[in-house]
Amino acid sequence: MNESKRRQKDFSLNALKGMQSVRATFTLPKHAINLISTIANQLGVKQKSIFDHLVEDKDIIEQIADKAKQYEPEKKQRKQKTFVLSRNCLSILDAFAREYKLPRDVLVELSIRQLDPVIAQEKQRHENRKLLLAQMQDFRQLGSRFLNRARGLAGRDDETVQKLESFFSQYDKAMEALEAIIEKGKSMEQFSSNGEQQMSA
To answer: pTM for the full model?
Structure first.
């Protein structure tokens, strides 16, 4: 095997090793833990993929590290949480924590806080869906009365009535699908409009 092929093979092996899953435990505020969990659930992606996305841009991590120097984390309501990360992701976090002499937990917390605008945007979409569902339900009530009148006028066997029934059947399925999406998004209701988690009394 010549030198170029050996280097290519080593590079491929190192890249694959960097994708390996590893477990790491951080002490984080509940907000950060709930934030990444909710985003993962809402978008249907793994938390590991979110971590990879958050730290893959080293320029952004440098900005976060600079910000972390001035950051004083609150000690209350913090808990240990074990996450599955890629080996590359954990290596980057460890390297920046050492370089900037920062607690790794702070670097992870501020990385996750980049998701605040995402949860705020998704929550607004969630609220808009609830408004849409309410309007769809109002329209469905009107549609039911209209469909009953149509059946009385033309009969159930009428072609137009059957098309109306088919339309409202599909409409009901659309409402059911929207209801399922809203139910899935209920976990976002714990966050305020700016992404901050609302504290229960």
So the answer is: 0.74
